[in-house]
């Protein structure tokens, strides 16, 4: 009885720590404190759970705990910052898998009774399994294991049939609960998650990862109800709701309704209005350096290309040089720059760029006409003006950074190809735009050397 | 747990989650997604309980339970490390004298 009481109190404290932690994480000043609180909550929850009465199999529990914990801890420590999104995806998928496995074990034990509990257990299993296999596919794509977005013939039809079949077997489990039904149900759910994620690519990926994050939260909450565990219910539902909101915010930032992301993915072939008049005009590193050195105001638009090249440190070095010469430098971040919202902020922060120099789309767009130079580094679709003008373009309506409105635009780009989504960029053909070809790292280093030479 | 009190918990938790995120700057979206990803790692606790209750003579139950704990532990540990690493990078402009 004593143990039961202790566990209840501990779980209550855990729930409070989680909520306070998440709250603290929503402000840059207190964010680090937040994760420490949530971490303390997790440790407390794990330790106190060992006191649960009538527990067995301690050996197995400890082995699984250590294997999973240490493995993930190590992989999380060594992963590069640019690869963060897929790590979040895979850890999230594992959480979903754990929720589904909890349901599977409770079914196997025959410990689930009553329609309400069975329904929630099944629903949690479905959502958790979809999140698991979907996140694995998302990981494989971002990691480059799986190269292309693949669309099955009649993709939406397949999705709907799979979804309905999984739900059908779920209902059958609630009604009768034969082992064969349960196994089929789990297989269908796993296939559904993978098939749903296969055709999704490009800038839509982060939204999907966020959606799966919300899914896992819900799945955890539902299984928490099945187990009568308030810590799981509260943490799961809080994350489910927060994740849903976050997903909506992201989808809104791209002006793509969630249904479009899931059912009408952007693909390379689907480009409309591909014929853009004009030519791309090249310029040298020296000219670029001079333009910025004698500018009043430079706005840097970093994109994923910069991050992949690992050029953020060089870019910040250049910005500091320019500031020393009296040039005002600001960084403009599109909500979906990088592979997740805020990913670019993290990458810039890693390079040491203070976050009061980094501006959101709404904050900075009015300033582009006042800027002498907009320096676009490895960004493409997020500065493509066709999003404003060309209704046939797949990215039409997506809010973009108005880099084209700056007096001069310098684009650092590796080659002449189209962007991540495969859409031609009208900006590159504008009269005020000059292309500086080369890897971001090299090009910026070149510019830096010229600026230094001018200062000397 | 009583059916109805659980529904209250569901509702209040949902509102809490919504409110906690509602006014978050874009800059924190990724760390927060990662942080909430860590928080649902508490599924580990549920996994431990079900493995703890599994029949020691049933290889099927033990295997499923083992997988559940393994995945749950990875979710929690990985989620923490990744979030911590991201948040460690947030610091103000040092020239204004405000350290991290």
Task: Furnish the topology, listing elements before pairings.
The complex is a heterodimer of chains A (456) and B (100).
Chain A: H1 2-24, H2 31-49, H3 58-78, H4 84-109, H5 115-143, H6 155-175, H7 179-197, H8 205-227, H9 230-253, H10 258-263, H11 285-293, E1 297-302, H12 304-309, H13 312-324, E2 328-333, H14 343-351, E3 358-360, H15 361-364, E4 373-377, H16 386-389, E5 408-413, E6 433-437, H17 440-455
Parallel strand pairs in A: 1-2, 1-4, 2-3, 4-5, 5-6
Helix pairs in contact in A: 1-2, 1-9, 4-5, 4-8, 5-6, 5-7, 5-8, 6-7, 8-9, 11-17, 13-17
Chain B: H1 3-22, H2 29-39, H3 43-53, H4 59-87
Detailed description of the structure:
- The complex is a heterodimer of chains A (456) and B (100).
- With 456 residues, chain A is of the alpha/beta class.
- Chain A is built from 17 helices and 6 strands.
- Chain A has helices at residues 2-24, 31-49, 58-78, 84-109, 115-143, 155-175, 179-197, 205-227, 230-253, 258-263, 285-293, 304-309, 312-324, 343-351, 361-364, 386-389, 440-455, and strands at 297-302, 328-333, 358-360, 373-377, 408-413, 433-437.
- In chain A, α16 links the parallel β4 (373-377) and β5.
- In chain A, α1 (2-24) packs antiparallel against α2 (31-49), α5 (115-143) packs antiparallel against α6 and α8 (205-227) packs antiparallel against α9.
- Chain A starts with a helix and ends with a helix.
- By secondary structure, chain B is mostly helical.
- Chain B has 4 helices and no strands.
- The chains are: A alpha/beta (456), B mainly alpha (100).
- At the A-B interface, α1, α2, α3, α4 and α8 of A face α1, α2, α3 and α4 of B.
């Amino acid at each position: 009885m004593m143990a039961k009481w202790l566990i209840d109190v501990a779980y209550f404290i855990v729930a409070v720590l989680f909520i306070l932690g998440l709250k603290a994480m929503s402000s840059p000043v207190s964010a680090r404190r937040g994760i420490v609180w949530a971490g303390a909550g997790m440790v407390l929850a794990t330790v106190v759970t060992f006191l649960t009465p009538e527990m067995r199999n301690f050996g197995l529990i400890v082995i699984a705990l250590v294997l999973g914990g240490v493995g993930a801890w190590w992989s999380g420590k060594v992963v590069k910052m640019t690869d963060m999104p897929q790590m979040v995806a895979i850890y999230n998928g594992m959480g979903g898998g754990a929720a589904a496995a909890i349901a599977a074990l409770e079914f196997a034990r025959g410990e689930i009774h009553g329609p309400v509990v069975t329904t929630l257990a099944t629903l949690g299993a479905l959502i958790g399994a979809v999140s698991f296999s979907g996140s694995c596919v998302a990981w494989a794509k971002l990691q480059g294991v799986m190269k292309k977005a693949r669309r099955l013939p009649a993709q939406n039809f397949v999705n709907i049939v799979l979804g309905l079949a999984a739900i059908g077997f779920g209902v059958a489990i609630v009604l009768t609960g034969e082992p064969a039904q349960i196994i089929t149900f789990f297989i269908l759910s796993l296939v559904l998650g993978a098939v749903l994620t296969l055709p999704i690519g490009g800038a839509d990926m982060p939204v999907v990862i966020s959606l799966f994050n919300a899914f896992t939260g819900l799945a955890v909450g539902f299984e928490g109800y099945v187990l009568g565990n308030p810590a799981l219910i509260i943490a799961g539902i809080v994350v489910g709701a927060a994740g849903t909101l976050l997903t909506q915010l992201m989808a809104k930032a791209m002006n793509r309704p969630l249904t479009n992301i899931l059912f009408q993915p952007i693909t390379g072939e689907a480009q409309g209005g591909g014929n853009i008049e004009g030519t791309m005009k090249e310029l040298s590193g020296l000219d670029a350096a001079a333009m910025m050195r004698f500018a009043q105001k430079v706005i840097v638009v970093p994109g994923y290309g910069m991050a992949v090249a690992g050029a953020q440190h060089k870019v910040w070095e250049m910005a500091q040089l320019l500031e020393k010469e009296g040039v005002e430098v600001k960084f403009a971040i599109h909500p979906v720059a990088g592979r997740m919202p805020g990913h670019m902020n993290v990458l810039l922060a890693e390079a040491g760029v203070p976050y009061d120099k980094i501006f959101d789309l709404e904050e900075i767009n009015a300033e582009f006409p006042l800027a002498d130079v907009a320096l676009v580094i490895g960004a493409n679709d997020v500065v493509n003006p066709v999003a404003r003008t060309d209704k046939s373009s797949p990215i039409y309506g997506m809010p973009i950074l108005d880099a084209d409105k700056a007096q001069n635009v310098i684009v650092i780009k590796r080659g002449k190809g189209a962007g991540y989504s495969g859409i031609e960029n009208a900006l590159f053909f504008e009269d005020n735009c000059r292309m500086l070809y080369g890897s971001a790292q090299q090009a910026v280093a070149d510019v830096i050397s010229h600026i230094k030479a001018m200062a000397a | 747990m009583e059916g109805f009190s659980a529904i209250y918990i569901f509702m209040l938790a949902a509102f809490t989650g919504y409110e906690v995120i509602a006014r978050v700057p874009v800059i924190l979206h990724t760390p927060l997604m990662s942080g909430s990803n860590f928080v649902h790692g508490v599924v580990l606790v549920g996994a431990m309980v079900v493995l703890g209750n599994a029949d020691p003579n049933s290889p099927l139950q033990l295997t499923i339970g083992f997988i559940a704990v393994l995945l749950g532990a990875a979710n929690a540990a990985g989620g923490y490390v990744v979030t911590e690493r991201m948040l460690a990078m947030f610091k103000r402009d040092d020239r204004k004298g405000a350290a991290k």
